[in-house]
TrEMBL record:
GO terms for biological process, alphabetical: recombinational repair
Protein name per its UniProtKB record: DNA helicase
Domain UvrD-like helicase ATP-binding as annotated: residue spans: 179-591
Transmembrane spans: none
GO MF annotation: an example: DNA binding
Binding, ATP: G200, G201, P202, G203, T204, G205, K206, T207
Gene Ontology CC: one annotated term: cytosol
Record keywords, A-Z: ATP-binding, Helicase, Hydrolase, Nucleotide-binding
Top-rank lineage group of the source organism: Bacteria
InterPro entries: DNA_helicase_UvrD/REP (IPR000212), P-loop_NTPase (IPR027417), UvrD-like_ATP-bd (IPR014016), UvrD-like_helicase_C (IPR027785)
Keyword field contains Cell inner membrane: no
Pfam families linked to this entry: AAA_19 (PF13245), UvrD_C_2 (PF13538)
Length: 750
């Protein structure tokens, strides 16, 4: 007698056979396209488009291989449908759906239907598979006579969910399509327009929801979004690596993942710096500071400047320079765009000086023009202009600012000398994350004098048109043989053919966007959005003028001093109060025993936020082990070296990261320690900042009092550290533990 598993196995095998068929068809088409040789430009463009289309499709099918089908809905009217990672149709029959894409509207009841509101669903079945084999089935019957949300607290697919949550962690986040919960589904499928804020405590699935929302939006609004692309901003490179697999596993590769430090194209802001320095750089006061710093680069000399032009002395006096500067500033152009106006005024003044020397009455307009041209080309004149109003890149401008105590004082007169000293640095040092928004702001203020580039582009286009004309002429000669045949001329002219070449940029929207500061995205998603500074928000708002954005975060977890503790504050300057707030309330990561301790810390933070309720208990109470200060590193190393199942994070205050890291490495040589620790290692040593957004099976929190003391937001940091674990938490401490941890059970050493 065949079991239900056998029945499902048969169906699932049929789906895989279908998938294999699609793959091999696409493979054949791709191979055929690649073999096509053509010198015709139009055919070549088509060939390239077809190649990338087929390659994309193959990637899409490849991504669906694991867990192709994971659900089935049986409806009260006797029909049923299967839910999976992609949609499959019966091309031979009536184009009947064989498998519904999880993002399609028809799949919604799989995530939303409850006994109280079954939406026509009689039974929801979770089909668990390993490779292509069906391993288990979990059924929920929903049309019980007097439906009510049963004892499971409204969880959908509880058995599959708990099995996913109890699995040991690998250091890489996985997708949750099989077990998305109703409150998460609402957010994932929320409309594209406007700003949506998702506030949720630790482990409520904010990151998971943000990533699935990106996949959903790209599926539903593909036309709109594939051209402009979607940007996801995360807190640091380690985190981006941690989440990097999720979207490809959902078949989406066109999303740009960046940290704030990457936001300025071509630069990587990753050098560490003191928290206070980042706070100053993140403040909105930097907008005026940078304006002052730019104005400071438009100089008027205190004394007359003497220039040697053609062995003659010429003088640029302060009043002349001031007048030229006033003229350029009055145009209200950006610094670099205003420079030609300044230069022209200086050259005009020098021309007049020269004319006076030679005797103006003897010179006609032609002579004056010659003098002007010669002066404009003179090295000494150019040098003077460069010194008084230099052409500046954002990088040069910011490096010069950081390198000079005087410039910093002019730009930031209202902060303390100690704070200014924090910004002073050698131009050779690399950029920090907080510098990226300043580079972008500087680029706005400096502007680009792109006249030379535009002229070059026009020249290029003319050359391409000439070339295209040549191509068409040759085709025309060939076509001359038969006047009835439609010629290339009938279809396209040289201008359009050349433009088509120009469009022929085979990079994806994400790749082009990464290289282009003026790129605007179709949608922007920000994770850990509470951490972003006012200056970072300015960049993101410039990159997303339509304000189609999803911001996920938790204002109780803010660690950056430039971050926020209210959503309204960051959004008011851009959208006033026109934004939607949704909340996630269930913690899928942290077991109830740990959350109870973390909730004490949250209460001390006085945010007014309610701790999320955990879906699981593990029976393992968090513990504390007290040790003498000198023994702390070794005690932590001993604990980290124990044979726990799964991954362990050792979360330490920044002041101890070196010592503890060294001690752990001596006991666990393959532990991951350092700026960018490898999360797939079994033991990882991290600061709280590095652990943001991540999770591990077990967590050792070292010296919590120092975590709290280290920052104005130290309690928030402790809250983050305590909520990284999926199974157990231990605290190791030499000092008294903070009051919120008073109740922890003591663990005996040894
Ligand atoms: N519906 C779900 N099904 C299965 N796993 C889930 C579900 N929702 C969340 N999870 C899991 O719970 C864990 C926490 O999710 P996630 O990291 O997205 O939470 P978060 O709200 O971003 O947390 P934090 O603010 O603490 O960084 C992850 O392992 C995620 O895969």
């Amino acid at each position: 007698m065949s079991t239900e598993i056998d029945v499902e196995q048969e169906y699932v095998s049929m789906l895989y056979a279908h998938l294999d068929g699609l793959r091999s068809d696409t493979d054949t088409r791709l191979a055929r396209t690649l073999r096509e040789a053509s010198s015709n430009p139009q055919a070549m463009t088509q060939r390239d488009a077809a190649t990338s289309h087929y390659s994309e499709q193959l990637a899409h099918y490849g991504a669906a291989e694991n867990g192709l089908c994971f659900g089935r809905l049986d409806f009260a009217d006797g029909t049923r449908s299967y839910i999976g990672r992609i949609g499959l149709f019966d091309a031979e029959g009536d184009y009947e759906p064989l498998l519904m894409d999880w993002r399609a509207p028809a799949s919604r009841p799989f995530y939303l239907a409850t006994a109280a509101s079954p939406d026509g669903v009689r039974r929801r079945r979770h089909i668990r598979t390993s490779r292509r084999r069906v391993t288990a089935i979990d059924d929920e019957v929903l049309d019980l006579a007097d439906g009510h949300d049963s004892a499971n607290g409204g969880l959908v697919g509880e058995a599959s969910l708990l099995s996913a949550l109890n699995a040991t962690r690998t250091g890489r986040m996985s997708d949750i399509v099989e077990t998305i919960q109703a409150e998460q589904d609402e957010i994932i499928r929320s409309g594209l327009n406007g700003v949506l804020v998702v506030q949720g405590g630790p482990g409520t699935g904010k990151t998971a929801v943000a990533l699935h929302r990106a996949a959903y939006l790209l599926f539903t609004y593909r036309q709109q979004l594939s051209r402009r692309g979607v940007l996801i901003v995360g807190p640091n490179a380690t985190f981006l690596k941690y989440i990097g697999q999720v979207l490809p596993s959902l078949g989406e590769t066109g999303v740009l993942l960046q940290t704030v430090g990457d936001l300025y194209p071509g630069e990587r802001g990753q050098r560490p710096e003191p928290a206070r320095a980042a706070e100053i750089k993140g403040s909105v006061d930097m907008v005026d500071a940078l304006r002052r710093a730019v104005a400071d680069r438009q100089e008027v000399p205190l004394d007359p400047m003497v220039l040697i032009v053609e062995r003659e002395e010429m003088v640029l006096d302060p009043a002349t320079v001031a007048a030229a500067r006033g003229r350029a500033r009055r145009t209200r152009r950006t610094h670099n765009e205003g420079r030609p106006v300044f230069a022209e005024a200086i050259v005009a003044a020098l021309t007049q000086q020269e004319a006076n020397r030679l005797g103006a009455e003897f010179l006609d307009a032609g002579d004056m023009a010659d003098i002007r041209r010669e002066l404009a080309a003179d090295d000494a004149v150019q040098e003077a202009i460069d010194a008084l109003w230099p052409q500046l890149t954002p990088q040069e401008f910011l490096s010069d600012l950081y390198a000079s105590a005087e410039r910093l004082e002019t730009a930031l007169p209202d902060i303390t000398p100690e704070d200014r000293a924090l910004l002073l640095r050698s131009p050779r040092l690399g950029w920090t994350a907080a510098d990226a928004p300043l580079l972008d702001e500087a680029a706005e203020l400096l502007g680009v004098d792109d006249r030379a580039e535009r002229a070059a582009a026009e020249r290029r286009l003319r050359d391409e048109q000439d070339y295209a004309q040549g191509v068409l002429d040759i085709l025309q000669m060939e076509d001359d043989a038969d006047p009835d045949i439609l010629t290339a001329y009938d279809l396209i002219d040289a201008g359009r053919l050349a433009e088509r070449h120009d469009d022929e940029d085979h990079r994806t929207a994400a790749e082009r966007a990464a290289a282009d500061r003026s790129w605007t995205f179709g949608h922007v998603i920000v994770d850990e959005a509470q951490e972003l500074s006012a200056m970072a928000w300015r960049v993101l708002m410039r990159r997303c003028p339509t304000r189609s954005m999803t911001l996920v975060g938790d204002v109780a977890q803010t660690g950056d001093l430039a971050g926020t503790d209210t959503w309204a504050d960051i959004l008011a300057p851009y959208v006033e109060d026109r934004w939607r707030l949704t909340e996630l309330t269930v913690n899928y990561r942290t077991p109830a025993e740990i959350m109870a301790v973390a909730a004490n810390v949250l209460a001390e933070l006085k945010t007014g936020l309610t701790p999320p309720s955990s879906v699981r208990e593990t029976g393992i109470e968090p513990w504390v082990q007290r040790v003498a200060e000198v023994e702390l590193p070794d005690a932590v190393a001993d604990l980290a070296a124990q044979d726990y199942p799964g991954t362990v994070a050792v979360i330490v205050p920044t002041c101890l990261v070196e010592d503890i890291g060294q001690a752990v490495l001596t006991r666990v040589p393959d532990a991951a320690v350092g700026e960018r620790p490898e999360l797939e290692s079994r033991v990882v040593v991290l600061t709280v900042r590095q652990s943001k957004g991540l999770e591990f099976d077990g967590v050792l929190v070292v010296e919590p009092a120092a975590v709290v003391a280290e920052s104005e937001r130290g309690l928030n940091d402790l809250y983050v550290a305590l909520t990284r674990a999926t199974q157990w938490v231990g605290v190791v401490s030499a000092a008294e533990v903070p009051a919120a941890l008073d109740g922890l059970r003591a663990r005996q050493s040894g």
